[in-house]
Sequence to fold (248 residues):
Amino acid sequence: MHPLMNAGGETFGPPAAVVEACKAAIAKGLKGDGALAPAVAAHLAAGEPIDLETAAKLHDCFTAPLRKDLAERGGQALKDACALMGGEAGLAWVQAVLAKDGGGASDAGAVEDAGKPMAGKFVEVLKVDEELGLVFGWAIVCEIGGKPYFDTQGDHIPEATMIKAAADFMASSRILGDMHQTAEGGAVVFAFPMTAEVAKSFGFTGDQSGLMIGVKPANPETLAKFKSGEYSGFSIGGVRITDEDVEE
Fold:
């Protein structure tokens, strides 16, 4: 066991999605950027828990590839390290752990990232209604606290782009895939673009903007995965046609 894994205090076991993601990264032979990521991968793949301090350290590791100074030096190795720590599922989990216990990124990371665009994964499931067979959550996050939000691949979707894409999607498709498989996974039955301007018009308050959705999985097995936490968020599939730099 790596000494960082259980320094003391309350511990948190990884959900099934994180365990499977770590196993997959190990099977691919990923090495990461040092000794920590492979150790974390082996630990989490075995279903072993971590403590709150470790969750904060892992959160800092996840956001490292989005910092230009580190990304230029680390490149693919940093991205491989994130995959070894559970990828999108791993980041969603450590953020949930930190949010639940009032934690945050370690002091060093918080100071270095102060004032920079938000990074990570807040595209999460918020409610599962078993009676109606519906799942609600954020499909796209555009801004948090007035700052552009970047996912773990370094992508940011502006509010105007989100609205155009959502309108086209709801008018022409509404297909819900299952792990990016589009064959009859279900349907997106509700979608609401919560931009800062729309929220103000409705008298809503909040620090997050983006696209809120309600989906209806086509089969009970998929709904059960949302209920159990195996599926903890939504992932948007698409093709990026053009890139635009966002100044920090």
Q: What stands out?
A: The longest helix spans residues 87-100. Residues 11-112 form one domain.
